[in-house]
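For practice. Supply one:
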Amino acid sequence: MTSSSTVLRGVLISVFGLGVVGFVAPGSATTEGTSVSLPVEMVADYVHAVIEADREVYTKHVVERMQIKGVVVASENWEQKNTLPLPAQFLIESGRVMARKGHGIQYKLISLWPINKRNVATSEFEKTGLGTVLTHPTTPHTGFVKEGGARYFQAVYADLAVTQACIGCHNAHPDSPKRDFKINDVMGAIVISIPVK
């Protein structure tokens, strides 16, 4: 698991670095005199694609595989029980690692029905984004926001129920406010924040 976290950090930092340099400082990256820049929306899409791919690999090839083989399980209290983090916790932990790197890019999970109350929408933009992706899950809700004097591009992407393990956990959890999730239902959202000038 440590090596997958290291790989994730390396990939995320590479993708974030390329995108932020291109967007924030157009013209700073050149190849034979050609300026390279990426729209911030594309950078957010790239970041989201990396997050989703990493979580899918972790869920299918680590958590589900280890549980089927009876090696180790994933649990909510993974640190105390010496188990694997749940896939949602893996995403949250990797988001904390990214935030500590000091690049300014952040990502987190939010939901209308969070098991953990820390995962509620904390701004009007996030609340609107949750409502938008609930009805239009294939299109992210995007815009610019100000927080603490800084300006960010934010994108809210639908977080879909893609495995039976995630559905079973949410539907059976005693603190879950919603217990009828099905495959491909919107369970919440991933919010990506990218600093801009």
Notes: DSSP finds six helices and six strands in the chain. Residues 1-28 have pLDDT under 50 and may be disordered. Strands lie at 30-31, 34-35, 106-110, 141-147, 150-160, 186-196. The first helix runs from residue 2 to 24.
